[in-house]
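To start, an entry.
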Amino acid sequence: MKSLFYRLFALFFNISRTLFRIKRNRVVLLSPHNAAFNDSLGEVKAELERRGGYEIGFISHADFSSVPKAVVFFTKKAYLLATAKYVFMNDNFMPLGYLNFRDEAVIVQLWHAEGAFKKFGLDIDQPADIRARELAANKKLSFVTCSSTGVADIYASAFGVEKSKVLPIGSPRADVLLRAENTAELREEFERKYPQSKGKKIVLYAPTFRDDPELDAQFLSHCDYAEFEKALGDTHCLLVRLHPQVHGTARIDGAIDVTDVKNVNDLTLISDAVITDYSSICMDFVLLDKPCVFFAPDLDEYTSRRPFYFDYRAYVPGEIAANTGELVAAVRDAGKCDRADRFKAINLDMVDGKSIERLVSRIFN
């Protein structure tokens, strides 16, 4: 069924490509999962609007929120993509492999995370049909950006492109964190909404998904939120933000559920530390020199399914806990880990607040 949809979109795209010329000032921002455009794509939008003279179109999963919008997606959005000079995307877009772009079109993969943590893209085992689609899609890429010179080889491998196509120019979405000037206001607003957080250290718990409903349910039950609150509730306030692809549920009494907060950057800015497991959100906290704690009770099982680029225990920039008791101790004593500087150098050496300037200059000039 998916293949049918991809081919239907490609049909309208290729008709538009045949009938209409490319518009040299047309830019399409393509976000298969994040319809809010509050990441690197949002930074591209803001920079082009500041410079002026560009016509910007948007494509996202929100285009499937109703039947009329879906019709627009297969027709008007296909036309926009076929006639765009520049296309920026933040994730895999499987129809890409079926599209015949003109030679002058520039397709840029910004990706949605920084650095290299768990393996992704073509570096993981995939069903043959999915791998074939991903290979076909990535052949259409003009450039792939990454946040550091230290991970350029990894991105070339993960996307199956020559290293010359990889641009280690930084990460516009991470630059936002360095430029933030409203952190105090965000914190005050949060404390007004959740007065139980006032005067305490805010700790964000942001685990990733297991891609299996049963495993999701199991890992959510590993943390005893009531025990955490009893031990640290006088000094710490725990926030819980679940990944959109988590398919399980769990009681989180004693913590604040912030899963519905649209912009995770706001939570990063107001938080004093993060607890995660295998999520690249740790990159943002290391960038801001904030402590990281890794709660990984299922580490061996997880890595057997989804390996990492480096040895997890020697690589992560923080203490590793396997149960709630160890987690409480790690959070209580959380500070800068001696592995943090090396981690930052590998993954974030080009994130300096000016990534968007380098990106736009490189692509448009």
